[in-house]
Each structure stands twice: as structure tokens, then as C-alpha cells.
Automatic annotation (TrEMBL):
Family: Belongs to the glycosyl hydrolase 1 family.
Coiled coil region boundaries: none
A GO-annotated cellular component: cytosol
Organism of origin: Tetragenococcus halophilus subsp. halophilus
Protein's name in the database: Putative beta-glucosidase
Assigned keywords, A-Z: Glycosidase, Hydrolase
Record bears the keyword Hydrolase: yes
GO biological process: carbohydrate catabolic process
Record Pfam families: Glyco_hydro_1
């Protein structure tokens, strides 16, 4: 029996845009996702857009009971910025009523909510002014954060600012998977910098409004492993870690952007515009905890013909195809559970054993109806095996002293996945798209319930 620490969080995560539905209703204004689907629906798997998603907006009362049914003691979702402040300035009362009732129902089931503020859902009114490219976004986000803390701070004690900030930077400004889908390394760095500053100003607002709560940030961790011990490959690993991991992690925990990253960016003429007072604000506004989403590692090697100055991160670290990799064929992501142990040790040794939790881990699988038994239950043993393998390594890290306080899966009920629509399913509950969004428990939900109840397995 592997028993986890006392009060360990067993839960799941989702986000507002992926689960609420009612995307153009109840006073919510458009986000970049609504706009992109309207203008380019063909980009989305089977034309599945953001409008309906899992309809938690109408079904949350029963869904909160479902959380309890499978033993979750904690749950993360986000607030939709465009729903709460449709024009960025004025509060939508209908959104306040919805979120308050939703959060009260989560609490009533004895589940601890962790509420996030931004999960890739940029309001369109702000995107029209440049989105994260513009410094105005920093103030706009800080205002939104303060408003949310004031409106819901009496109910919610655990908050996070961003989910996976590296993703909206990479996908929006380098690889085309998020709107505005442009390729411009310099803009990507500026967007990254404004996101960093939006985070620290939100933390500053939090300290003023809610001195007793906890605030953190959710980062996607893709620990870099180099092809070899050769110096050039090791340099590629160092560059990858600086850009994809230490950028936000050091800022959040240590209150500063690593000097090596500042120099790397400067050397490639990518330095963003900053304000003189920024460094001080960073230093004063570190977080209370870190959430790390882990899905896959990053295999790197030295780039063969790097351009100078770099036009793309691939000029600083090139992808390496590790011959021994194990792949989740549906998502194309490597499965490498040991990285969770390496991350646990990194948090212990390089971040002074800072408190952290696994804020997402999971396996997306297509056409899961293949695995439905006669009673209508999806027999997703592959998902149970995936979680077990990761938990084994997490347990080892905790045994060796890493300060990890929880494990959240992605996700609770199958949800909408951006351009992938409903192709890959991750949930403990299957969502029936053509049957009024009915939810059906999968085998993994039963397994997780036992784990949560026993605080181990
Ligand atoms: C995480 C995100 O990166 O992974 C989620 O926080 C996302 O929003 C999840 O849905 C799974 O990835 P995908 O692309 O398969 O939906």
C-alpha cells in the first residue's frame, strides 16, 4: 500500500471555456476562441466549436454531486474573464450569480475549489487592442483579478493566476495552434513578458484584497532531456529549461527572471519592452504554491544550422526523437512517468522544497466508445495504468522529501479540447455529445474513488 501525505489533494481540473458552454449567452462577450470558430470553423475537429462544451453552466448542481460520488476532495476550474467582465470594466451580474452558486455547490459537497483566472481565453475586445502584445493587457488583467478576488474571495481561498502561460505564447505566436496564429519570436517574447507582469500584478492585488488566502500559478512542465552529455546538447537542454520552465517558475517562486535567460534573450536581440519599476514588483510578489501540469518530457539536441539571431526556439534547442520513446498514439505525446520523480526532486533541490502539486496529468484517448461494456461503462484500464505509473514515481519523490501536496487529473468530465474538439477524451465521466450531454462514469472514476478514499493504493 502506498499511502500519501495527510490531507493530500485528490482531484481533477478543467477550465471555463472547455466546460461551461453557453459561450455566447448570459452576458458573456466573445473570446478569441469564439471569434476564431466563427471565422475559421474548418480549423476545428469536426467543426466542434466553443459554444456548447460540457454545459456545466446548466448542469453544475448535479456535477458537483458527481465530484463527491467519485471521492474528489478538490477541484480546479477557471472563471471566464469575458463572462465576468464582458467589456473589461463592468461586472456581469448574471456571471456573479452563476459563479457564486457553482462555487457554493462545490463547497457544499466538501470539495475544495481552486480557482484559476486565465485558461487561454483572451477576451476579443482586448485582442483587438493587441492582446498580450500590448502593455494595456497587464492593467486589464490586474483589474479583472482584483474584481474576482473581491467578488468571490469570501468563498474561495485557493487561487491561481494563469494556466500554462507558455502555451498561449507558443501556440499563439510560434506554432499556429491558438489565435492569432502568427509566427514571430520577438512578439512571443513580448507576450511572455506581459504575461509575467500580468501575473505579478494579479498577485499584488491578491495580497491587498485577501491577505489570508493562497495564490499560485499553474505551469506546464516539460522537463528537458538532452540527447547526450556532449556540451552542445547540454547547452540545448539549458536553453529549453530556461525558456519553457525557469522563465515562469523562477519568477513565481524566486521573484526574478533568471539572469541567464535575460542574457540569452538579449544575445538574440529579443529583449522586450519593460517598465523600470517591474523588477521591484516581481521581487515583492512571489506565490504561495505552484501547480505543475505534467504530460510529456521535452527531448532536445543541439540545433544543426541555427540562425542568428534566433528566429524560433528551434534555433536554440532542436527536438530530438528518442528511439526508445513510448507514445500515446492519439495525442502524439511521449509517455514518460519517471519525469514526475525528476520534477519532484527539482522542486526539492532547486526550489528550496517549495510547496507544489501535480495540477494536471492524464491521458487523452480517441473513440473510447470502443471500450464500452454491456452496462455502458467505458473500461479504461489504460487510463488507470497511466495514473498508477505516474503516481508510483510521484510517491517515490514524496518519500524522498519533495513537498508535493496533491495530484489532480485532467479531467473530471470529458471536455472540449480547443482545435481538437471532442476527439480525445480524458474524463472520469464520458460525455455523450448527441444525448443531451449525459455523463456516464468510466471505470477509472471508480478506481480513483478508492484511491482518494484510502489516500493511496
Ligand atoms: C493542458 C491544458 O495542456 O492539457 C488543457 O491545460 C488541455 O486545457 C489539456 O485540454 C489536454 O490537452 P489537449 O490539447 O489534448 O486538450
Amino acid at each position: 500500500m502506498k499511502t500519501f501525505p495527510k490531507n493530500f489533494l485528490w482531484g481533477s481540473a478543467t477550465s471555463a471555456p472547455q466546460s461551461e458552454g453557453h459561450s455566447s449567452q448570459n452576458g458573456k462577450s466573445a473570446t478569441t476562441w469564439d471569434y476564431w470558430f466563427q471565422t475559421n470553423p474548418e480549423k476545428f475537429h469536426e467543426n466542434q466549436g466553443p459554444e456548447n462544451t460540457s454545459n456545466i453552466y446548466e448542469m453544475y448542481k448535479k456535477d458537483c454531486q458527481r465530484m463527491k460520488e467519485i471521492g474528489l476532495n478538490s477541484f480546479r476550474t477557471s472563471i471566464s474573464w469575458a463572462r465576468l467582465l464582458p467589456d473589461g470594466k463592468h461586472v456581469n451580474q448574471e456571471a456573479v450569480t452563476f459563479y457564486r452558486d457553482y462555487f457554493e455547490h462545490i463547497l457544499a459537497e466538501g470539495v475544495q475549489p481552486i480557482i484559476n483566472l486565465f485558461h487561454f481565453d483572451m477576451p476579443m475586445w482586448l485582442m483587438e487592442k493587441g492582446g498580450w502584445e500590448s502593455r494595456e493587457s497587464v492593467d486589464a488583467f490586474a483589474f479583472y483579478a482584483r474584481t474576482a478576488f473581491e467578488l468571490f474571495g469570501d468563498l474561495i481561498d485557493q487561487w491561481t493566476t494563469f494556466n500554462e502561460p507558455i502555451v498561449h505564447i507558443e501556440c499563439g505566436y510560434l506554432n499556429g495552434a491558438h489565435y492569432p496564429a502568427i509566427h514571430d519570436f520577438k512578439k512571443a517574447v513580448q507576450v511572455g513578458y506581459h504575461t509575467l507582469m500580468a501575473h505579478v500584478y494579479a498577485v499584488q492585488a491578491f495580497r491587498e484584497v485577501k491577505p489570508k488566502g493562497n495564490i499560485g500559478i499553474i505551469l506546464n512542465i516539460t522537463p528537458a532531456y538532452a540527447r547526450s552529455a556532449e556540451q552542445a546538447d547540454q547547452k540545448a537542454k539549458e536553453n529549453a529549461d530556461l525558456l519553457t520552465m525557469k522563465s515562469f517558475l523562477d519568477l513565481a517562486v524566486k521573484g526574478a527572471i533568471p539572469e541567464a535567460l535575460v542574457q540569452l534573450i538579449k544575445g538574440h536581440e529579443l529583449t522586450p519592452e519593460t517598465n523600470p519599476s517591474d523588477k521591484e514588483v516581481m521581487k515583492e510578489n512571489t506565490v504561495d504554491f505552484i501547480g505543475l501540469n505534467y504530460y510529456q518530457p521535452l527531448r532536445v539536441q543541439a540545433p544543426e544550422n541555427p540562425r542568428f539571431p534566433a528566429q524560433d526556439p528551434e534555433d536554440l534547442y532542436a527536438p530530438y526523437d528518442w528511439p526508445e520513446k513510448r507514445i500515446n498514439p492519439y495525442r502524439g505525446w511521449e509517455i514518460y512517468p519517471k519525469a514526475i520523480y525528476d520534477v519532484a526532486m527539482m522542486m526539492k533541490n532547486e526550489y528550496d522544497n517549495f510547496p507544489w502539486y501535480v495540477s494536471e496529468n492524464g491521458m487523452g484517448v480517441a473513440n473510447e466508445e470502443r471500450f464500452m461494456d454491456e452496462q455502458g461503462m467505458i473500461q479504461d484500464d489504460y487510463r488507470i495504468d497511466f495514473m498508477k505509473e505516474h503516481l508510483d514515481y510521484l510517491y517515490q519523490g514524496i518519500q524522498e522529501g519533495s513537498n508535493c501536496f496533491g495530484y489532480h487529473t485532467w479531467t473530471f468530465i470529458d471536455c472540449w479540447s480547443w482545435l481538437n474538439g471532442y476527439r480525445n477524451r480524458y474524463g472520469f465521466y464520458r460525455l455523450e455529445l448527441d444525448n443531451n450531454f449525459e455523463r456516464h462514469l468510466k471505470k477509472s472514476g471508480l478506481w480513483y474513488k478508492e484511491v482518494a478514499q484510502n489516500n493511496g493504493y
